[in-house]
Design goal:
Largest sheet: 8 strands, mixed
Radius of gyration: 28 Å
CATH superfamily of the largest domain: Alpha/Beta hydrolase fold, catalytic domain
Helix content: 10-25%
Shape: globular
Strand order of the largest sheet: 36-37-39-38-40-41-42-43
Strand content: 25-35%
CATH topology of the largest domain: Rossmann fold
Length: 749
């Protein structure tokens, strides 16, 4: 009997242990910093360089070659799915080498007889725009490097001439062309150096106007139009590298700060026949006007050029004679706030009109402009905004674009008649709330469709238009979706906040998984808040940092204040003119006060953090509303708006002598004496965008007022603070520990 009892008891213990182990094995996994920032557990898959074929019947993509390494360029028939290898990686092995070229980018000549490969690339500030170029002759199979005698990985923006016989490129700030039949190289400009820039741009134009490739082939292949910049007179900012040698290395960077001189810019054309340069006679001081856009017009004889004034509230459109340089103004748009360069110029009606995006109606809409009279006529209209112009179907009279009427957090495909008649048609499926993006074929019959929302990793499909029928799924990220099911991940809830002044703001919130409405929780606000972006968007992010904070026991909230780049109309976006850093903390604080009224919010534990403009808004919020925010983390911020580049800051704040009060009151530096809470400053000393100077100036001011703070300096890291070994992991670990220590969640459930 005793033996039976012992046996029965042992079975019970073993059974309990088994079920406990089994339960633990089936228990959801927890998010960890290692998974997020070291092991890349949640990395999503994309699709590689899908390009539409010129016959509009198929598309090409890059696919791994398991035999020789590298990647093949393959083509797929849209309807049948038939696969054909256009270029095998084996044909991209240079003579004397054993491995194929690594394709970073590729371009076909207009006749499809030649392929241009961009490889061995290097970053120039943000993007990989310098490297080596090779040409593959599709008929002979011959693989030839462009300008092999020049320095390795120093060529920029190589591209075929329209007739396919030449390739133009930039090398050490000069423009060259190579005859692809003979190999002969001609240098077209000779004055390029560290000061004179031909065919590319200085730091400010690249950062703020998105200008990188600075030359254009004429349609007849006989001329090249190009920008030239002269950085003489622009202030030099010096970055200091203290860690890569025993003596510091000084890195000079021409960088025009607020109120200081710009580089001058001009536009010229070069005749390949005699190398004669003709400069366009554009009126106005070249240092106090910008030339952010230039293209060949609807002919080989003229250029269309946009000129923004220094305040960026007037955009003049010129047609310039490429032969003699004479210009004629054909249109002018003026705003009482600011204007952005217009990227959506497409010629209509045999070159007599062109498209133009404008918010002068109060909403961003597509218009047509007569090139002879300058008259602007609406193509789209209504209380919504055209967010992205995607494609014009000139044959059938349609324009395809992204919009989101009434839903600033989402994005959908619409089309409208080019004649301005009828109502907009939504083409994105009604059952897929979230973000939709499209790469539409030139025929407008097909598109690569990408769908995502806050809990759905991107799904890539080939669809037909306008019926939006799915033809083929390219990638559904099913592997990532299955992995996510193994984890306990808190949901993101979208909602709106109505403040006491009647304004309504989009927001999202993530609560802890074990949320108990009878408990009091600390809140961490994530803020950006400037005109360049938006944080409250219904789309997937593989960076589950906010969900990890919720796992720690925090409620995480983000709010889009007035002035963020959301499609809510001109007044919403531009009411912050001359008030950057002033309105955003007011809105954020008003929303925080409403949230602090909720029963489950601990009003004594409110934190805030942000990066770049969000770092600046974190500081302004903490300094101006110390009674609300008890702990903050500010990363890569601007502490004094006079220390940032003039193109960005003057665009939104006007010239400093015309808005002294705004620059003063919008700068966190001004209010630093009011700090009461816990503050962590994080900066990369190699930040070429928001200079480390901002951190040191603020630190000096805080010390002056005897304010305690913590500061972490990441040596020679840039604005993204992600270079060099273990940087991202260390940064996030430091942030998490700071929240734990100075805004404890007390999550004991």
């Amino acid at each position: 009997m005793r033996r039976t009892l012992i046996y029965t008891f042992s079975i019970a213990i073993l059974s309990a242990l088994f079920f406990n182990v089994s339960a633990q094995q089936n228990a959801p996994l927890k998010l960890t910093l290692d998974d997020l920032y070291k092991n890349n557990v949640f990395r999503q898959k994309g699709i590689n360089e899908v390009r539409w074929m010129k016959d509009n019947k198929g598309y090409s993509a890059l696919e791994a070659n398991e035999t020789v390494g590298g990647r093949d360029i393959v083509a797929y028939d849209i309807e049948t799915g038939k696969r054909e290898v256009l270029v095998s990686a084996g044909s991209l092995i240079p003579a004397g080498k054993t491995a194929p070229l690594n394709i970073y980018n590729y371009t076909w000549s207009d006749d499809n007889n030649k392929l241009l490969i961009f490889t061995n690339t290097r970053k120039v500030w943000r993007l990989h725009t310098r490297g080596d170029y090779w040409v593959l002759d599709m008929k002979s199979g011959k693989l030839v490097q462009i300008a092999p005698s020049m320095k390795e990985a120093h060529l920029m923006f190589a591209k075929f001439s329209p007739d396919g016989n030449m390739a133009g490129f930039v090398y050490e700030n000069n423009i060259y062309v190579q005859n692809l039949n003979t190999g002969a190289i001609d240098q077209l400009t000779t004055d390029g150096n560290e000061q004179i820039i031909n065919g590319t741009f200085d730091w400010a134009y690249e950062e703020e106007f998105g200008c990188r490739d600075g030359f254009r082939w004429s349609p007849d292949s006989k001329k090249i139009a190009f920008w030239q910049q002269d950085t003489d007179g622009t202030g030099i900012f010096y970055l200091i590298n203290n860690i890569d040698s025993i003596y510091p290395k000084i890195i000079p960077l021409p960088y025009p700060k607020v109120g200081t001189d710009n580089s001058s810019a001009k536009i010229g054309t070069i005749s390949l026949e005699n190398k004669k340069i003709t400069w366009m006679d554009i009126p106005g001081d070249p240092r106090n006007n910008y030339l952010p856009r230039m293209e060949w017009a609807n002919s080989t004889a003229e250029l269309i050029i946009q000129q923004l004034n220094r305040q960026q509230n007037t955009n003049k459109i010129y047609l310039a004679d490429a032969g003699n340089g004479k210009v004629k103004q054909i249109f002018e748009e003026v705003s009482d706030t600011w204007l952005d360069p217009n990227d959506e110029i497409i010629w209509l009606k045999k070159g007599t009109e062109f498209t133009w995006l404008s918010d002068l109606s109060g909403w961003m809409h597509l218009n047509s402009i007569s090139s002879s009279s300058g008259k602007m006529s609406p193509i789209t209209s209504g209380d919504f905004e055209v967010i992205n112009l995607l494609r014009l179907d000139l044959e059938n009279g349609w324009v395809y674009y992204i919009a989101s009427p009434g839903k600033a957090t989402q994005r959908y495909l619409f089309r409208s008649r080019l004649d301005g008649k009828g109502k907009p048609e939504r083409l994105s499926p009604s059952g897929q709330a979230g973000h939709h993006s499209y790469n539409i074929s030139p025929s407008c019959k097909y598109a690569v469709h990408t769908f995502t929302n806050y809990n759905t990793p991107p799904v890539y499909q080939i669809i037909s238009l306008p019926d939006h029928k799915v033809i083929r799924v390219l990638e559904d990220n099913s592997e990532l979706k299955n992995r996510l099911k193994q984890y306990a991940i808190a949901e993101k809830e979208f909602f709106t906040i109505k403040t006491d002044d009647g304004l309504e703001f989009d927001a999202w919130m993530i609560k802890p998984l074990n949320f108990n409405p009878k408990k009091k929780y600390p809140v961490i606000f994530y803020v950006y808040g400037e005109p360049a972006g938006s944080t409250v968007q219904d789309r997937w992010s593989s960076n589950l940092w906010d969900e990890l904070l919720a796992q720690e026991g925090y409620i995480v909230i983000s709010v889009d204040n007035r002035g963020t780049n959301t499609p809510k109309g001109r007044e919403w976006r531009k009411c912050v003119y001359e008030k950057i850093g002033i309105i955003s903390p007011v809105d954020q604080a008003a929303c925080a006060r409403k949230i602090m009224e909720w029963d489950f919010i601990d009003a004594d534990r409110i934190g805030i953090w942000g990066w770049s403009g969000g770092g600046s808004n974190t500081l302004n919020s903490m300094f101006r509303y110390p009674e609300i925010y008890k702990t903050g983390i500010a990363i890569a911020f601007v502490s004094n708006q006079l220390l940032y580049d003039n193109i960005y800051q003057e665009r939104y704040m006007n010239l400093p002598h015309l808005n002294e009060e705004g620059y003063r009151d919008g700068s966190p530096f001004t209010h630093a004496k009011n700090l009461e809470g816990n503050l962590l400053l994080i900066y990369g000393s190699g930040d070429d965008n928001c200079h480390y100077q901002n951190c040191q100036v603020l630190a000096d001011e805080l010390i002056k007022h005897n304010k305690y703070f913590t500061m972490i300096d990441y040596p020679m890291r840039s604005h993204s603070i992600n270079e060099r070994e273990n940087t991202t992991m260390h940064l996030r670990m430091s942030m998490l520990n700071y929240w734990r220590n100075y805004l404890p969640a007390n999550n004991n459930d």
